[in-house]
Design a protein that fits this description.
By secondary structure, this protein is of the alpha/beta class. It folds into two domains: about 160 residues, Rossmann fold (3-Layer(aba) Sandwich); about 140 residues, Glucose-6-phosphate isomerase like protein, domain 1 (Rossmann fold, 3-Layer(aba) Sandwich), CATH 3.40.50. The chain is built from eleven helices and nine strands. The strands form two sheets. The protein has a five-stranded parallel beta sheet, sandwiched between helices. Strand 8, helix 9 and strand 9 form a beta-alpha-beta unit. Helix 7 packs parallel to helix 10. The longest helix has 29 residues. The radius of gyration is 20 Å and the shape is globular. The protein starts with a helix and ends with a helix.
């Protein structure tokens, strides 16, 4: 896992080269909306992309995670179906429903059944390398290719390309400092339940970190977003709990009002937790800063796994769940 995390900058560069070659055949005109279907490490890419194009894309970009397809997804909507393995049960279910409704589909995968179905039906597909053993380590392929797909659909320009390449350079340059900081923070999270907070516009970063703590570090955590948590979760902070650690992800793109909310919320929460960490992004764009925080969070999760004596690759419980489902 540490080798895969370290390979993230190069993955971004490779993903850009793949994205430049994407040529879509079936583009509906007009196009009313885009539905992105995916689970886990394949699904979160859609969360990032939907956030980054929030104020740029003229049609809704909606991410769905599960077996069901919303009633509104009919032509002239189209769908991106993302499964790194190509064998994700929930995503294949949605793929079949999309076909029944004759919704144009773009399959994003490294192979498996999804690639076979796409080939058999003439569905547009984007194939990414299959030599990564953990789908959660393939976030770069997911976010970059989905961005290029939206560009090919005529929904956004390629503002993102330079940001991805700059992010790769930034992460490479900052790797040593990031790893040192990550190891220091991980050492203080070993026996803690981590409460993760991001501000509006960066919520996918918090979600990603929570999922990495779950899968890599084999620990539980919770994530929340400001300002929404000010309307509910904040009220739960009433009693001291030394098993709680707070992690804030902060960026230059946080609004002034939300920064004030964080400051006030911290006054309430910090005295009731064991420790508080504020992680500040680096980079010259929203994409660069988000990926900086992702990279930092990924390294924290790896060092935390190491400190807890956990195998950061192993996901036996998920394998058990899938096997048990297949027997039914």
């Amino acid at each position: 896992m540490d080798k895969m995390i370290a390979g993230f900058p190069d993955q971004l560069r490779e993903a850009v080269e793949i994205g430049k070659q994407i040529q879509l055949k079936n583009i509906p005109n007009p196009l009313s909306s885009v539905y992105i279907a995916g689970m886990g490490g394949s699904g979160i890419g859609g969360d990032f992309v939907a956030e980054w194009v929030y104020d740029k894309c003229p049609v809704p970009i909606i991410v769905g995670k599960g077996y069901r397809l919303p009633a509104w997804v009919h032509p002239p909507a189209m769908a991106i179906v993302s499964s790194y393995s190509g064998n994700t049960e929930e995503t294949l279910s949605v793929y079949r429903q999309l076909q029944e409704r004759k919704v144009p589909i773009i399959a994003l995968t490294s192979g498996g059944q999804l690639h076979q179905y796409a080939n058999a039906s003439g569905t547009d597909s984007v194939l990414v390398p299959d030599n990564w053993s953990s789908p959660r380590a393939c976030l770069g392929f997911s976010i970059v290719e989905q961005s290029y797909i939206l560009q090919q659909l005529g929904l956004i320009d390629n503002f993102f390309e330079r940001d991805f390449l700059n992010a790769a350079d930034l992460l490479e340059k900052e790797t040593e400092a990031i790893r040192m900081l990550a190891e220091e923070i991980a050492g203080q999270l070993v026996d803690k339940f981590t409460m993760i907070y991001a501000l509006e516009g960066m919520e996918p970063v918090a979600l990603r970190f929570r999922q990495q703590l779950n899968e890599n570090s084999k620990t539980r955590a919770a994530h929340f977003c400001v300002p929404e948590m000010n309307h509910n979760e904040l009220v739960g902070w009433k009693k001291q709990d030394n098993h709680l650690a707070i992690v804030y992800f902060l960026s230059d793109y946080d609004s002034e009002r939300n920064r004030k909310r964080v400051a006030i919320s911290r006054e309430i929460m910090a005295p009731l937790a064991h420790s508080v960490f504020e992680l500040h992004a680096k980079g010259n764009s929203k994409i660069e800063q988000a990926l900086y925080l992702v990279y930092l969070g990924d390294w924290i999760s790896w060092y935390l796994a190491k400190a807890r004596g956990m195998d950061s690759i192993e996901v036996d419980v998920i394998d058990f769940l899938k096997k048990s489902l297949s027997e039914k």
